[in-house]
Amino acid sequence: MTTSRFVHQQASHCESGVMSAIVRHYGLPLSEPMAFGLSSALAFAFFPFIKLSGLPLVSYRMPPRTIIRGLQKPLRFSMRTETFRRPEDGAARLNTLLDNGQAVGLQVSVFWLPFMPPDFRFHFNAHNLIAYGRDATSWEYLLSDPVLEEPVRCAPVDLAKARFARGLLAPRGLLYYPGSAPQEPVWEQAIPAAIKKTVRNMLRPPLPFIGVKGIARIARAVERLPAASAPQAAKLYIGHLVRMQEEIGTGGGGFRFMYAAFLEEASTLIASPALAELAEKLVEIGDLWREFALATSRMIRDRDPLDLDHLAVLLRAQAEREKTFFASLYKAVRPS
Amino acid sequence: MNAADVPQESSSTYGGYLKAVYARSGDGRMTLVQSRGWEAEETVTRQAVQAFEALAAAARERVRAGQSSPLEVHMYRARMDVALLAQTSGLWRWQVRRHIQPTVFARLSQAHRARYAEALGIHPDQLDSVD
């Protein structure tokens, strides 16, 4: 594989940003929304029994590594992934790969990255970025963090802490790079297959915590929060939902805008006007997620009275809309 | 969301960075637009930061009253709870809870102190101070 100089490009989400950049670096033009859509990364998941600082696991996408693994089949190439028990081994392996001129994807904890804005530095272990070189004198790593505008540098001791952070979704030093060159997919097959998988996750998931059922479930959980006896705890809970939807590199609206961009691009590639119309619809749904975020934040700031039943109504309406949307999406890619 | 409607509300939480979001541009196509921030997002980010700040402040009061040790303050300042500090330091939760007690903290071994300092990302000498 030939490797040229690495080109940094800002993205809206870390894993799709990293994977589209790696695929581009190894020779195949690929947009971030296309990487996200082709790997069927869109979802909704609510696991009330998995807690982080007392708050439930809520996600608007499939679990970490979905995009790294999911692009292999459509792009007909392989990704090599390695994890390490000892930080020394992880650093040595990364240095070897970088010295060979590879661009390497890394899973890291946001908390230990000194270049991140302090208010974003929480113990979130599933952040992704690319290492593309080392400074020959300071040994600082040259990093491309796709959610930032410019490439950054990071001292080896800080990167080691970020790569070997413990806790939920611990990265265990995960690094990844292509084992072969990505190929242009057969769009007429890859796009419908990827969309069908997303529809399956949203409408017929293996567990009732995923997909539109998960949204309905979270509406029930919100309704049952102790608004009267513990308003601060209730506010922290609903604020957490909005943070997961808007903050953690989602491109806004819980990834719905990015998936709409994927559908739009897909509609051109496989000449399907129906997908372009559905992209419009999904932008509307994303706008309504933003309205939910706005309503919630106003309650947190006491601009509006805390009304959990109202938030539950908004969430149930979103569940209904997404149910209809994904059913239409399935019809659009079903062979007629 | 239209590109023209992407909020540019200069959130302090962004620390001067710009974030990229997808929105519909003037010609009707989805495109990546930079945002300076959005008040709704800033609210929930600040809320999460302040929740830990409040826990640290309350712990500091307990340290003053002799009911807790600086370890608890440092734990919340590092945005951790007992479960995460236990995982990060490689100790059991009950050990962390015990070490937080002021009398036990006062005679913590050098090895344990080094472990906590490493887990919290501070120097062992900083462990005793809450200022």
Describe the structure.
The complex is a heterodimer of chains A (336) and B (131). By secondary structure, chain A is of the alpha+beta class. Chain A folds into two domains: 10-76 and 186-336, no CATH class; 79-179, Alpha-Beta Complex (Cathepsin B, Chain A), CATH 3.90.70.10. Chain A is 47% helix and 14% strand. Chain A contains eleven helices and eight strands. Chain A has a six-stranded antiparallel sheet, with helices on both faces. In chain A, strands 1-2 form a two-stranded antiparallel sheet. In chain A, strand 5 (127-134) and strand 6 form a beta hairpin. In chain A, helix 1 (14-25) crosses helix 2 (32-38). Chain B is mainly alpha-helical and 131 residues long. Chain B folds into two domains: 3-37, no CATH class; 42-128, lambda repressor-like DNA-binding domains (434 Repressor (Amino-terminal Domain)). Chain B has six helices and two strands; from the N terminus they run ββαααααα. In chain B, strands 1-2 form a two-stranded antiparallel sheet. In chain B, a hairpin with a 5-residue loop joins strand 1 (19-24) and strand 2 (30-35). In chain B, helix 3 (82-89) crosses helix 4. Chain B is elongated, with a radius of gyration of 21 Å. The N and C termini of chain B lie far apart (45 Å). The interface between A and B is large, with 51 and 41 residues.
Mean pLDDT of chain B: 94
How would a textbook summarize the main sheet of chain A? 6 strands, antiparallel
- Specify the number of helices of chain A: 11
Look at the structure and give the mean pLDDT of chain A: 95
CATH architecture of the largest domain in chain B: Orthogonal Bundle
Strand element count of chain A: 8
Strand order of the largest sheet of chain B: 1-2
Number of domains of chain B: 2
Question: What can be said about the biggest beta sheet of chain B?
Answer: 2 strands, antiparallel
Distance between the termini of chain B: 45 Å
**Radius of gyration of CA atoms of chain A, rounded to a whole number:** 20 Å
The succession of helices and strands of chain B, N to C, reads: EEHHHHHH
What's the CATH superfamily of the largest domain in chain B, by name? lambda repressor-like DNA-binding domains
User: Structural class given helices, strands, pairing of chain A?
Assistant: alpha+beta
At CATH level 3, the topology of the largest domain in chain B is 434 Repressor (Amino-terminal Domain)
Number of helices of chain B: 6
Estimate nothing, just give the exact number of structural domains of chain A.
2
